[in-house]
Amino acid sequence: MHFTQCFRPLMVLSSAGSDARQNGGRVRRKESGTNMATPSERLSENVPGPFYVTSECIDCDLCREAAPEIYRRNDDIGYSVVHHQPAAPEEEARAVDGMEACPVEAIGREPISVID
Ligand code: SF4
């Protein structure tokens, strides 16, 4: 067996970069400044509103650490969900912090501001 055949899976993972994570054999790369959450994967357990988590979540806890008032683990499904939509500019900023912390872009935001 050739060297590259033995180590190809490891090479694929390492080439995904330090800000990517494996999710069921799928590796997604986070592009700086973009939001690539898939709206069709939005979890029904999110409270209604512009911010949402999708089934692309890998349950890493980073959004919950960044904004626990916005994101919470749903133990029934094993994913984070939005349990409170931001209602003030400070909360909106923290919701964005949590979204930007997500290594697999499983947090989406509809293109409207919750704060006028
Ligand atoms: S940061 Fe992303 S992957 Fe991690 S728990 Fe939150 S939504 Fe899930």
Key traits:
116 residues, alpha+beta, Alpha-Beta Plaits, two-stranded antiparallel ribbon, two-stranded antiparallel sheet, 17% strand, disordered N terminus, binds iron/sulfur cluster
Structure explained in plain terms:
With 116 residues, this protein is of the alpha+beta class. It has one domain (3-109): 2-Layer Sandwich (Alpha-Beta Plaits). Helix content is 27%, strand content 17%. The chain contains three helices and six strands, in the order αβββαββαβ. The protein has helices at 3-15, 62-66, 89-101, and strands at 21-23, 26-28, 51-53, 71-74, 79-82, 107-109. Strands 1-2 form a two-stranded antiparallel sheet. A two-stranded antiparallel ribbon has the order 3-6. Strands 4-5 form a two-stranded antiparallel sheet. Strand 1 (21-23) and strand 2 (26-28) form a beta hairpin. Mean pLDDT is 79; it is low at 1-34. Iron/sulfur cluster binds at residues 53, 57-63, 71, 80, 101-102, 104, 106-107.
